[in-house]
Design goal:
- The complex is a heterodimer of chains A (364) and B (473).
- By secondary structure, chain A is of the alpha/beta class.
- Helices cover 29% and strands 27% of the residues of chain A.
- Chain A has two domains: 159 residues, 3-Layer(aba) Sandwich (Cytidine Deaminase, domain 2), CATH 3.40.140; 176 residues, no CATH class.
- In chain A, helix 2 packs across helix 3.
- With 473 residues, chain B is of the alpha+beta class.
- Helices cover 26% and strands 25% of the residues of chain B.
- Chain B has eleven helices and 17 strands.
- In chain B, 37% of the residues are buried.
- The chains are: A alpha/beta (364), B alpha+beta (473).
- At the A-B interface, strand 9, strand 11, strand 12 and helix 5 of A face strand 3, strand 7 and strand 8 of B.
- Strand 11 of chain A pairs antiparallel with strand 7 of chain B, so a sheet runs across the interface.
- Chain A: It comes from Hippocampus comes (Tiger tail seahorse).
- Chain A: This is Protein odr-4 homolog.
């Protein structure tokens, strides 16, 4: 049996509008939450058009551009929501577009996961949805691909609209104190970049968060306990999470116990707090899922934040070297961030357009 | 009720033991010794601050119980409060504790309650805080310096008495943690050479005569032989005899909930009931040994290896008492040692030839540097008159005795002897056992058991090898 997507009816309205605009070949992202039982789609958002369209691209989707859009959107999504697929509105036959949709969904997920330090476990859903909509007939063709399997074939899936899909999702939030100290290499001995050093430090940190004990409203629930047991299903619950860590030595840590003291060329420190808020669907979610969603958000928020801070730190160096041309998709320019940051989106509370500002405005 | 007789015959209560790594990380700007010491001390000070902060969390293993000792000893789940008796924590632990304790004395129900229970805790840190807190900032320092990074293997134990509440016990534990960080700091600084540092490692030692556990911190990588001054201090502080080791790493206390990974049984004789002789006394081997017998180590020595196994049991005693670091020798190593001392020809190595008490004596001397006394009886019936000699041996030396000669080899672990009546029983460990490490079988079938004087072949001659304890700490 294929996957079943429960789709918020505002998505239907949104897609219909796009169909009415008659602009052929519109692509965009499908945003929602996967769970083993069922998948939820809370939002769709169109890819912004390039200011200077690619020459000779024809009708095939601009993979690089769409992936970059997906990457930036992913960074901004609150916990529990992620880009779970792509859509295309096109006159072409659904069967004909399937191959390019397949390529597109793989490209999108590859770029998003390249930034993530989160290790997917066996229980994680790795199916992604592709949606083809004929603007005239409004016929929807919904297929999924397992992106963990490069040879995976399209599987038909169910796409069903429902009102107020996420109106009573629970929220879990926490504030994680961060105190990271990472050595920088002694130049002679090593040529590792700051970026790499920080990434290694973050890996150790991520490992600790992944293995942390998670308390929900002060209690450690069994993995298979229902998160909202005994609660009314249509009431939005606000839960507080606590994370308890053991400073375990990550197996790929830079130092072995025998090298207690190492030469270094300096250090990087990250200090402060990460605020995380994650949304969990209301279809009898298990405590384990809620925990995973929260931890994943803590990790990705931290990674994104550190990347931003590092971009800022590296900015003057980059400029003097002339890096940071108008090639989209590098995402390392700090000028981009103020634009993105002013966009506080939360599709669960407020519908805000996700497709402004276009990425190439960053160099203005 | 929860008292136990441990391997040394000492009674102890339940333990609350917390373990967990703590990260010790800092930048050493300078190689100036005073500044390095200052930086390290500051980092330790910071760790002590964390351990005494609200972030410090102790989690009872295999249970939902979590304790914040610095939040007025806050406990979850709610059913437990600060005034709950510490013993009640056992109810919350869903473990195979019975299985662990029962592996050795499985069906003997009476035994179960006599095993000291250990409540194991993990030292953790809560990283979440009630917000809001400022967003992170990134700081970069470029300066040639040194980076100190290691994890401290924290390991603290407190004894809990039946009247102790959660509050009492955890306050004690926190004190122990703070104290251990002080000790680790002291040891680390004391053994610092230039910018070379050793990780401080805690070890627990059980003092004789129910005087409880003592924790000592030793620098990793520094051998016992270089730590004699530290041990001397400990011997003085606890008024212990200065002729035998108590604080070598090998003397560290083995908690009842820890299994021996090498698979050998320890002190199987503890499962036996000692004989009662009129006006008699029981004299036993001191400390720990492991039971070596036929067919172990994938070595088929059935029919010829009994003296080798008895010798291995003796070697295991010297190793576990901390006298030697050398692992128990294999049959081949034993044979090679005999060739090396000129006792045997080269062809002896790899053969299946028997050895006797004199060879055991020679190997102990060659491989362990241990001297032995040899005692001789021309007839097994004379063994009945060896009461005083054996009693004195177990009193002063306390080592397992190998006995061989005309017939089979055995290990003598103790003697029950009445000075007035001359009645005698021998505690025998039989190396001819070929089965699995099943304590029940070994004690029920007498592979380890008390034997009367008729046990000895009344007409055969016997030689006893009585290893002597070196005088060392």
């Amino acid at each position: 049996m294929g996957r079943g997507y429960i789709v918020d009816d505002t998505v239907e309205v949104y897609l219909s509008k796009l169909c009415e605009q008659q602009s052929d070949h519109v692509t965009g992202l499908v945003i929602g939450q996967n769970s083993i039982q069922r998948d939820f789609v809370v939002m769709a958002c169109r890819t912004p058009s390039r200011e200077e369209p690619l020459v000779g691209a024809g009708k095939s989707p601009d993979k690089e551009w769409i992936s970059e859009h997906a990457r930036q959107v992913s960074r901004m999504l609150p916990g529990g929501l992620s880009v779970i697929g792509v859509f295309v509105i096109s006159d072409a036959d659904a069967k004909e577009t399937l191959a390019s949709l397949r390529q597109l969904v793989f490209a999108v997920q590859r770029l998003i996961s390249s930034e993530s330090l989160w290790k997917a476990d066996d229980n994680e859903v790795t199916d992604c949805v592709t949606l083809h909509i004929n603007p005239k007939s409004r016929k929807i063709s919904c297929r999924t691909f397992d992106i963990k399997d490069p040879k995976s074939l399209a599987k038909p899936a169910d796409w069903k609209y429902q009102a107020a899909v996420c109106s009573s999702w629970s929220t879990m939030s926490c504030c994680v104190k961060v105190d990271l100290l990472v050595p920088l290499p002694d130049n002679k001995a090593c040529t590792k970049s700051m970026d790499e050093c920080l990434k290694e430090g973050l890996k150790v940190w991520t490992y600790q968060i992944e293995n942390a004990v998670c308390l929900i409203d002060g209690i450690q629930l069994p993995d298979d306990a229902e998160l909202t047991a005994g609660q009314k299903r249509n009431v939005r619950q606000v839960l507080t999470a606590q994370l308890l860590v053991t400073p375990v030595r990550y197996k790929h840590a830079v130092f072995t116990p025998t090298d207690v003291v190492q030469r270094c060329g300096g250090a990087l420190s990250v200090r402060g707090a990460i605020h995380s808020r994650a949304y969990v669907h209301n279809n009898k979610p298990k405590a384990k899922l809620a925990e995973k969603i929260l931890k994943k958000d803590v990790v990705s928020t931290m990674v994104t934040r550190v990347q931003m801070l590092l971009d800022e730190l590296l900015a003057p160096e980059d400029e003097s070297k002339g890096v940071g041309t108008d090639k989209p998709g590098t995402g390392t320019s700090p000028h981009l961030w103020p634009h993105l940051l002013c966009l506080i989106i939360n599709p669960l509370h407020r519908r805000t357009s996700l497709y402004s500002p276009p990425p190439q405005k960053r160099n203005k | 009720m929860t008292m136990i007789v441990d391997s040394n015959g000492i009674e102890t209560g339940d333990f609350l033991r917390v373990r967990g790594p703590l990260e010790l990380k800092c930048i050493l700007d300078s190689t100036d010794v005073t500044l390095v010491r200052k930086a390290i001390s500051r980092t330790f000070e910071n760790l002590r601050y964390h351990v005494n902060s609200e972030s410090c969390v102790l989690r009872v293993q295999d249970s939902p119980v979590i304790i914040w000792p610095n939040k007025g000893v806050h406990v979850t789940p709610r059913e437990i409060t600060t005034s709950t008796m510490c013993e009640e924590l056992h109810k919350w632990i869903q473990t195979d504790e019975q299985e662990m304790a029962g592996k050795r004395s499985a069906k003997k129900k009476g035994k179960k309650s006599s095993v000291a229970r250990v409540i194991s805790l993990n030292l953790m840190m809560e990283v979440t805080k009630p917000g809001p807190l400022p967003a992170p900032i990134l700081c970069k320092t470029i300066q040639k310096s040194h980076f100190l990074s290691t994890t401290l293997p924290m390991d603290c134990v407190v004894n809990i008495r039946s009247a102790d509440t959660i509050k009492d016990a955890f306050e004690g534990l926190l004190e122990a943690l703070t104290h251990q960080l002080h000790e680790m700091e002291r040891v680390m600084l004391c053994h610092m050479k230039g910018t070379t540092l050793s990780v401080p490692e805690p070890f627990h030692f059980l003092l004789p005569e129910s005087r409880g556990l003592v924790t000592a911190v030793y620098p990793a990588g520094v051998p016992d032989s270089q730590l004699e001054p530290q041990r001397k201090e400990l011997h003085e502080r606890f008024e212990l005899p200065e002729d035998r080791p108590y604080f070598r790493r090998a003397n560290a206390y083995h908690f009842p909930n820890e299994l021996y990974k090498d698979g050998y049984l320890r002190n199987p004789h503890l499962a036996l009931t000692h004989p009662t002789l009129d006006d008699g006394k029981v004299y036993l081997v001191h400390g720990l040994y492991s039971y070596h017998h036929y067919m172990q180590d994938r070595m088929d020595d059935n029919g010829w290896g009994c003296a080798y196994r008895s010798l291995q049991t003796i070697c295991s005693w010297f190793q576990q008492q901390g006298y030697v670091e050398r692992p128990v020798p294999t049959h081949k190593e034993i044979q090679q040692a005999l060739v090396d001392v000129g006792d045997k020809q080269g062809s002896f190595v790899g053969s299946r030839q028997w050895i006797g008490s004199f060879e055991v004596h020679a190997v102990l001397n060659q491989l362990l540097g241990v001297t032995s006394k040899i005692s001789f009886v021309s007839q097994g019936s004379e063994m009945a008159s060896k009461g005083r000699e054996l009693a004195n041996h177990f009193l002063s030396e306390g080592t397992p005795v190998m006995i061989g000669g005309g017939v089979l080899a055995h290990t003598i672990l103790g003697v029950a002897w009445s000075e007035t009546s001359g009645q005698i029983r021998f505690l025998i460990l039989d190396p001819h056992y070929t089965g699995a490490e099943d304590l029940q079988v070994i004690t029920d079938k007498g592979w380890c058991g008390w034997k009367g004087p008729e046990f000895w072949d009344q007409t055969a001659y016997y030689n006893m090898c009585l290893p002597q304890r070196p005088k060392a700490i």
